[in-house]
């Protein structure tokens, strides 16, 4: 039983309509369940209101692009998500190049607006354990400042994670985003939380993406997340991406701009170290 409620096996049986033959606990509150017939699934409990609905809608929206595979959603309710288990293998240079091309195709599938939520997904969604509001906009620099950077900057300041006067450094970068952001780009279909832990190297030689915070955004944001926490064969991923959809001039200098959002999210969740990284990044742009 989980917190006096259903067991993961009972959840899987209810949401898939199939009997269960085995279950075992996994890392991070996940459970691996085997359905009758041998299909292995992952059962995951949502961390906040609307979190499961947002994740399920995000996975389906990413899957609809037919670019980067994601685990199939086999069932969900407001508290539980059941997806097909991905058997993992080892990172590989050739797989990384193909993943880069596929990621470019995912982004090119587009979105109705910056901040657009996946169809059927809630406006009030999540990135990891942090709330993330999907508010549509048409101008990326202003949308990014208002709906991605500043909400977390204000929360970090209110909690004392940022000291008096430090928030102004990041606010100045937000004011300058229209001149720093590079050429306009159409809204891309983003995974939205593309750090290494959400990139699964499948045993079948394909990369799959999990745990999205999917929304319409700037394609450089996903790439900046891969840079922020590192990823095996990142150079090959970027080579494949550039081959399929070349990035605009100066993209590498803009990586830090796109990292302000996840750094401030991590500052709110995990504290001062990430706030200091956000400040250091902002100072790099202050006098550009």
How would you characterize this protein structure?
By secondary structure, the protein is an alpha+beta fold. The chain is built from nine helices and eleven strands. The model has no long low-confidence stretch (mean pLDDT 95).
Features:
5-stranded antiparallel β-sheet, 288 residues, 11 strands, two-stranded antiparallel ribbon, globular, alpha+beta
Alpha plus pi helix count: 9
Alpha-carbon Rg, integer:
19 Å
Distance between the termini: 56 Å
Strand residue percentage: 15-25%
The helix content is 40-55%
Structural class given helices, strands, pairing? alpha+beta
Low-confidence stretches: none
Q: What number is the mean pLDDT?
A: 95
Order of helices and strands: HEEEHEEHEEHHEEEEHHHH
Shape: globular
> What's the count of strands?
11
**Oligomeric state of the chains?**
single chain
């Amino acid at each position: 039983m989980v917190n006096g409620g259903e067991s993961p096996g009972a959840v899987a049986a209810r949401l898939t309509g199939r009997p269960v033959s085995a279950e075992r606990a996994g890392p991070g509150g996940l459970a691996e369940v085997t359905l009758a017939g041998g299909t292995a699934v992952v059962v995951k409990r949502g961390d906040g209101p609307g979190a499961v609905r947002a994740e399920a809608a995000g996975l389906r929206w990413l899957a609809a692009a037919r670019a980067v595979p994601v685990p199939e959603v086999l069932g969900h309710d407001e508290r539980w998500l059941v997806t097909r288990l991905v058997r993992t293998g080892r990172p590989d240079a050739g797989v990384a190049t193909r993943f880069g091309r596929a990621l470019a195709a995912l982004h090119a599938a587009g979105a109705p607006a910056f901040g657009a939520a996946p169809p059927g997904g809630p406006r009030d969604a999540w990135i990891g354990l942090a709330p993330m509001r999907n508010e549509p906009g048409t101008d990326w620099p202003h949308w990014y400042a208002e709906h991605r950077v500043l909400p977390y900057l204000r929360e970090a300041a209110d909690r004392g994670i940022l000291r008096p006067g430090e928030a102004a450094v990041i606010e100045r970068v937000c004011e300058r985003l229209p001149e720093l952001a590079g050429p306009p780009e159409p809204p891309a279909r983003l995974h939205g939380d593309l750090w290494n832990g959400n990139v699964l190297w499948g045993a079948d030689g394909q990369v799959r993406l999990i745990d999205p915070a999917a929304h319409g955004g700037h394609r450089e944001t996903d790439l900046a997340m891969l840079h922020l926490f590192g990823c095996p064969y990142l150079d090959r991923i970027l080579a494949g991406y550039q081959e399929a959809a070349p990035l605009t001039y100066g993209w590498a200098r803009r990586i830090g701009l796109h990292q302000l959002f996840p750094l401030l999210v991590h500052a709110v969740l995990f504290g001062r170290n990430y706030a200091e990284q956000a400040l250091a990044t902002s100072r790099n742009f202050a006098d550009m």
